[in-house]
């Protein structure tokens, strides 16, 4: 069965957004606004899977909304909203908790990374995070999901959940909808050279807004001096830049800085390697700083301006939530009927 093309993506309001969030997700969102019907969500229910101070959660939710707008999303063209204002996300997540297998959740690397050694103390919400993410996407029957490479595993799980639901309820789906499948298999949209931006302090860890070290990341609202200082301090090695891409073997930090340059410049990584072959990092870092400041300055100026008008940001979220609910509610109602709930 073919489904109308629809994009869904979300960002957690867990802190100030980083260059990783920008390059892996936000900077690409506006590319889709003229091509697809797009829903961009501030996933506040995902955020509370780890402890969030309520005042900070509130401020960060408006902060992510401002970052969406500052990155070029037009609230008239896109549906911009926060997850907790559309109850169907939670309702669908419960149905999916009963479709998802524990064995599938046990394989999720993000849970292992975030729960760390204190697994027994992690919230149940963190464990079932991927089924809420599947609900976010499928409650709109979204077909395309732009995400960073780090979210690929969760998206594969969303596809498994869609497939198992379609299979388990095949008989009712056929009689009630005349279709073969109720949910689409959502496709990841993962493109470009720096789809997993790594920490500036450790090239084996992804750049993350909740990393305790602020020097591990560039924040979307860092000023030029802070960006310059963080890039100057970024971990590298004593060797010059190689002349071939495979010369980065065992040099994760060096490769990360080059990948960031390529993504900011929107150039293939190979071209950037050729241009800087043999240069010392001290020189390359100056060029990278210039490019990062030039690219982020207009976005961060707009971000600061928008954050100064919380009333406007709240009204964007309210209007977006109403539009989102109008799509989700009939799909949720139909899901309940397929499952066999009375009253749906
Ligand atoms: N380092 C990254 N490189 C590329 N893409 C990234 N994304 C996040 N970090 C990187 C992409 O940003 C989108 C929103 O992510 P999120 O905030 O919902 O959750 P996350 O992936 O867990 O991001 P963080 O910054 O690491 O948040 P915390 O610290 O709260 O866990 C997603 O599309 C993601 O792929």
TrEMBL record:
Drop me one GO molecular function for this one: tryptophan-tRNA ligase activity
- Gene Ontology terms: cellular component: cytosol
Is Transport one of the keywords?
A: no
Record field: catalytic activity: tRNA(Trp) + L-tryptophan + ATP = L-tryptophyl-tRNA(Trp) + AMP + diphosphate + H(+)
Under Enzyme Commission nomenclature, its number is: 6.1.1.2
Q: Which is a GO BP term held by this UniProt record?
A: tryptophanyl-tRNA aminoacylation
Q: Where does ATP bind?
A: 12-14, 20-21, 148-150, 197, 206-210
The portions of this protein that span the membrane are: none
**Which InterPro entries does the annotation name?**
aa-tRNA-synth_I_CS (IPR001412), aa-tRNA-synth_Ic (IPR002305), Rossmann-like_a/b/a_fold (IPR014729), Trp-tRNA-ligase (IPR002306), Trp-tRNA-ligase_bac-type (IPR024109), Trp-tRNA_synthetase (IPR050203)
SUPFAM superfamilies reported in the protein's UniProt record: Nucleotidylyl transferase (SSF52374)
Report which superkingdom the organism of origin falls in.
Answer: Bacteria
The record places the motif ('KMSKS' region) at: 206-210
Please report, in chain numbering, the residue ranges of the motif 'HIGH' region. Answer: 13-21
Q: Which UniProt keywords apply?
A: Aminoacyl-tRNA synthetase, ATP-binding, Cytoplasm, Ligase, Nucleotide-binding, Protein biosynthesis
Entry's localization field: Cytoplasm
Which residues hold L-tryptophan? 136
Q: What is its main location?
A: cytoplasm
Q: Write down the top EC class of this protein.
A: ligase
Family to which this protein belongs = Belongs to the class-I aminoacyl-tRNA synthetase family.
SUBUNIT field:
Homodimer.
The entry's function note states: Catalyzes the attachment of tryptophan to tRNA(Trp).
PANTHER family, sorted: TRYPTOPHAN--TRNA LIGASE, MITOCHONDRIAL
Which NCBIfam families does this entry report, sorted A to Z? trpS (TIGR00233)
According to UniProt, the name of this protein is Tryptophan--tRNA ligase
| Species whose genome carries this gene | Candidatus Phaeomarinibacter ectocarpi
């Amino acid at each position: 069965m073919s489904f109308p093309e629809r994009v869904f993506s979300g960002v957690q309001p867990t802190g100030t957004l980083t260059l990783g969030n920008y390059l892996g997700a936000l900077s690409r969102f506006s590319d889709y606004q003229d091509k697809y019907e797009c829903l961009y969500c501030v996933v506040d229910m995902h955020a509370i899977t780890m402890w969030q101070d309520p005042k900070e959660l509130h401020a960060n939710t408006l902060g992510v909304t401002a970052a969406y707008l500052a990155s070029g999303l037009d609230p008239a063209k896109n549906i911009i909203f926060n997850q907790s204002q559309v109850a169907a996300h939670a309702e669908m997540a419960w149905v999916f908790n009963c479709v998802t297998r524990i064995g599938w959740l046990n394989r999720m690397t993000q849970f292992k990374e975030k729960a760390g050694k204190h697994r027994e103390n992690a919230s149940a919400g963190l464990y079932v995070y991927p089924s809420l993410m599947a609900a976010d996407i499928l409650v709109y029957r979204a077909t395309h999901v732009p995400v960073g490479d780090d979210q690929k595993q969760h998206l594969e799980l969303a596809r498994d959940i869609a497939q198992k639901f379609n299979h388990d309820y095949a008989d009712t789906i056929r009689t009630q909808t005349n279709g073969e499948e109720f949910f689409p298999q959502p496709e990841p949209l993962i493109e470009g050279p720096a789809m997993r931006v790594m920490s500036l302090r450790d090239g084996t860890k992804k750049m993350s807004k909740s990393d305790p070290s602020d020097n591990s990341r560039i924040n979307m609202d860092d000023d030029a001096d802070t960006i310059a200082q963080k890039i100057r301090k970024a971990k590298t090695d004593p060797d010059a830049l190689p002349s071939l891409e495979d010369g980065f073997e065992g040099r994760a930090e060096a490769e990360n800085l080059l990948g960031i340059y390529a993504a900011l410049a929107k150039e293939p990584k190979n071209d950037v390697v050729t241009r800087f072959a043999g240069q010392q990092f001290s020189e390359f870092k100056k060029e990278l700083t210039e490019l990062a400041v030039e690219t982020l300055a207009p976005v961060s100026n707009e971000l600061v301006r928008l954050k100064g008008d919380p009333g406007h940001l709240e009204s964007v979220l309210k209007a977006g939530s109403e539009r989102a609910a109008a799509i989700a509610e009939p799909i949720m109602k139909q899901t309940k009927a397929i499952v066999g709930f009375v009253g749906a």
